[in-house]
Amino acid sequence: MSVKNTSKNYGTIAKWFHWGTAVLFLVSYLSIYYEIWFTPGLPPPGVPRDPAYWTSLQIHLSIGVSIAVLVILRIIWRIINRQPNEEAGSKLEHLAARAGHYALYAIMIIQPILGYIGTSVNTEYFFLFEISKFEETALFASVVSDGLGMTFQEFEVPIDFLHKEVFGRWLIWILILGHTSAAFYHHFVKRDRTIYKMTNNKKHSE
Ligand code: HEM
Ligand code: HEM
């Protein structure tokens, strides 16, 4: 198995990025819905925070930040690496596959940014170190306060709407469902090597 991509397969590093990110997405969803469904949520001022609420929220934030860092490294790796050859298919299928992959890259960048700029708490990155919330940065002061003349409370409404309702509840699910359906369509209907390219299975490869 090669570290770099070959004409037939994704290499070890591309596979780790791919499956590692898929697991991070899953844990990101599990942690935030655990927080929303099973913990009391943000307490009113003066009331102590519930530890399960804070831990599950911080896991969500830390994982989101990790996805953002990983996607940058992944894109660099993709640029300096060759792409495996595409399986046979119509022009439209190739176009749809490429558009789908670019859209997945886009959500891996946009969703963590929306989460970060819309949150009212600092990120305690896996409880190792703290990342200041956007509201406390110079960028917020110059762009949002001075530039747009908005308070954080006004600014977070549309941002939270995009992060939670548009991307979190709908867009990401639609893209991932489309992506996995396409992978299974290749495997079970077209019976080509698409899934093997992204797994360790050596079937039909050189
Ligand atoms: C790709 C990464 C991410 C994904 C897939 C994601 C997804 C989600 C989802 C599904 C929700 C709940 C939506 C609902 O209300 O039904 C949510 C809420 C939230 N996310 Fe993210 N998120 C990501 C990254 C981030 C980051 C990086 C931050 C901040 C640093 C963040 C902060 C929040 C906050 C504060 C909430 C609201 C929690 C609450 O309602 O108590 N997210 N996110
Ligand atoms: C069970 C879930 C998943 C399966 C079965 C799966 C399968 C695959 C396969 C077979 C490929 C190779 C496609 C090709 O070369 O034509 C691929 C590529 C890709 N997948 Fe997934 N995937 C899954 C989850 C995810 C998730 C959750 C994300 C991100 C949110 C994701 C993002 C991508 C991206 C961006 C590519 C393109 C890689 C590149 O060429 O740079 N996948 N996936």
Protein architecture, described:
The protein is mainly α and 206 residues long. The chain has one domain: Up-down Bundle (Fumarate Reductase Cytochrome B subunit), CATH 1.20.950. The protein is 67% helix and 3% strand. The chain has a two-stranded antiparallel ribbon with strand order 1-2. Strand 1 and strand 2 form a beta hairpin. The longest helix is centred in the last third of the chain and has 39 residues, at 152-190. The termini are close together. 16% of the residues are buried. The model has no long low-confidence stretch (mean pLDDT 95). Bound molecules: protoporphyrin IX containing FE (2 copies). The site of one protoporphyrin IX containing FE (HEM) has 23 residues, from helix 1, helix 2, helix 3 and helix 5.
Write the layout of secondary structure elements.
Elements: H1 12-38, H2 51-79, H3 91-118, E1 123-125, E2 129-131, H4 138-148, H5 152-190, H6 194-197
Antiparallel strand pairs: 1-2
Helix pairs in contact: 1-2, 2-3, 3-5
One protoporphyrin IX containing FE (HEM) binds next to helix 1, helix 3, helix 5 and helix 6.
The overall average pLDDT, rounded, is 95
Largest sheet: 2 strands, antiparallel
- CATH C-level class is Mainly Alpha
Topology as a string of helices (H) and strands (E): HHHEEHHH
What proportion of the residues form beta strands (DSSP E)?
A: under 5%
Count of structural domains: 1
Number of strand segments: 2
Shape assignment: elongated
Q: Number of helical runs? A: 6
- Strand arrangement, largest sheet? 1-2
Helix content percent band: 55-70%
Ligand roster: protoporphyrin IX containing FE
Question: Which segments are poorly predicted (pLDDT under 50) over 5 or more consecutive residues?
Answer: none
* CATH architectural type: Up-down Bundle
